[in-house]
Amino acid sequence: MHSESDGDQLKSKISYFLILFSLLGCTGQKPSVQSEPKPFGVVVTVDKYATEVGKKILQEGGNAIDAAVGVGFTLAVTYPRAGNLGGGGFMVLRLKDGRKTSIDYREKAPQRSSRDMYLDSDGNHITQLSVEGYLSVGVPGSVAGMLYALENYGTMSIEDVLMPSYLLALEGFEVDSNFAASLHERIAVFRKYTSTANIFLKDSVTTYEEGDLFRQTDLAETIDRIIKFGGAGFYDGLTAELFESTMIKYGGIISKVDLFSYEAIEREPLVGNYRGYDIISMPPPSSGGVVMIEILNILEEFEPHTVVPLTSAYIKTYVEASKYAFADRAEQLGDTDFYPVPVNALISKEYAKTIVDKIGINSVTPSDKILHQNKAWLDSVETLIKNEGIETTHYCIIDKWGNAASVTTTLNSYYGSKVVVEGAGFLLNNEMDDFAAKFGSPNMFGLVHGEANAIEPNKRMLSSMSPTIVEKDGEVVLITGSPGGSRIISAVTQIILYYIDFGMEPDEAVTQPRVHHQWLPDILYYESGALSDSMIFDLEKMGYDLKKRKAIGNTHLIGRSHSSGIMIPIPDMRRGGHGAIVID
Ligand code: DON
């Protein structure tokens, strides 16, 4: 996997330099902002087929939104562990005239869901029910969201945008080593569900190997129905019939009415400002925008740290700010259509100042002294966050006109609930685990929630997905986001800090190792290389409980180079990805 990542990183750098050379007439001069290169399109995704489709759509004259929708459908075919029709996501858009908007296609709780549906008679959370199988599924939003984007902001026909994904499903594609490995890892769980085994296993025993052709004819037919009937091809008619019968057969609760009534919601994005840069991100039901802007507002009150390597004092300030913001997340954030979340207060500069007053210069405040009303939660969060796969996937696109799309989409965990709709060929999410199954009981990301994120029919579960666009003086400088559950917010925030405060180039900002603290558990997680021995010593002396973990996010990014002014695609080396540049 690493050689693939290295190769892709290298390829993106080579394309970047080739472009610079062609734009500058091969003079070899260091490029400057004044050189005013002709605008071009950029795509970055985790998957080579998806990047190719995005690139082709831009080459054919489509805009960033057409490409984003084509990429989204392609990922559902070629990257089924996270790309999806049976999940949800968020899209933050910056349009060529400078307007910003966001599309919420998060899953919602089925009408027959209830607050205590995952508790046993003693009130204990039956974890398995909210993380795997038919009851863990939220009503999917991806198809509605992507079609909403295409209808309202795209320029191409549904047929043109979806045809590549249809053909990849129908004719198949070659399994690479990465996909083969991911299938092998889940072979035991695929065997548990017949409709899933029918898709992801070759026979009842083995799965696909590198070099095999992987065809998904049921999925192709589902995409064909969407091409023919639009949203009704998924939320009504045969697909909805197949969906409901699968649910009835295996004890799930999603009905045709749930599907038919699902709607994507266009929402005003949150806009913060950090040291002169506009941070445009996702509002609830994502917590991403609120928590990130809250952290940035707090840090803005401190003297900027501008030198690398980072110091323990810098890490300490960042981590303390994160703890307060994540504590607010736990208690106050949920779907604003169901719960009065004080969004504007939480992202205000005034509120940040009140937290700054509590963050001492040298002292560290243990999590149990931070906030909040629900002290009982503090006892229940001994569970360490597991090194689970960083699934979910993020992609970024900008076109030559200046339309930009930052999109994060997910099934929640690796291959979602692990169940496939019989005869329709797509996996379903296990997003219900993002609700508060039991107040104060950590979910699979160790996150705790309360009333604001309690289960209610039709409510959307709180998310950490943080598709973000950063602008300076009205021009896009970063488009980014990440998988990683709660760590998404830390990864995206740190990229912004590294780019703005430390003046790192986009590739350095992505590569720089990260840290993460989410209030509960009271543990400071760090990636290899993030902390030197002396920093570890200092931070432990300050009172932190430190734990190393594999990866904190797997961001993809399009960023404007500080030195050249040129937009560059940067796939994250942590798991690899594929960037492309499209010149007329
Ligand atoms: O919406 C959320 O916050 C989660 N369902 C995202 C899951 C995720 O990033 C999976 N990766 N570990």
Q: Which structural class matches the secondary elements? A: alpha+beta
Strand portion: 5-15%
Largest β-sheet summary: 7 strands, antiparallel
Uncertain regions spanning at least 5 consecutive residues: 1-34, 381-385
Q: Helix count, per DSSP?
A: 20
Number of strands: 18
Overall 3D form: globular
Small ligands present: 6-diazenyl-5-OXO-L-norleucine
User: In angstroms, what is the radius of gyration?
Assistant: 23 Å
Number of domains: 2
Provide the residue-averaged pLDDT: 91
- The span between the termini is 32 Å
- Provide the helix percentage: 25-40%
Give the spatial strand order of the biggest sheet: 6-3-2-10-9-1-18
Which keywords apply here?
alpha+beta, globular, 20 helices, 18 strands, 584 residues, binds 6-diazenyl-5-OXO-L-norleucine, six-stranded antiparallel beta sheet, Serum Albumin, Chain A, Domain 1
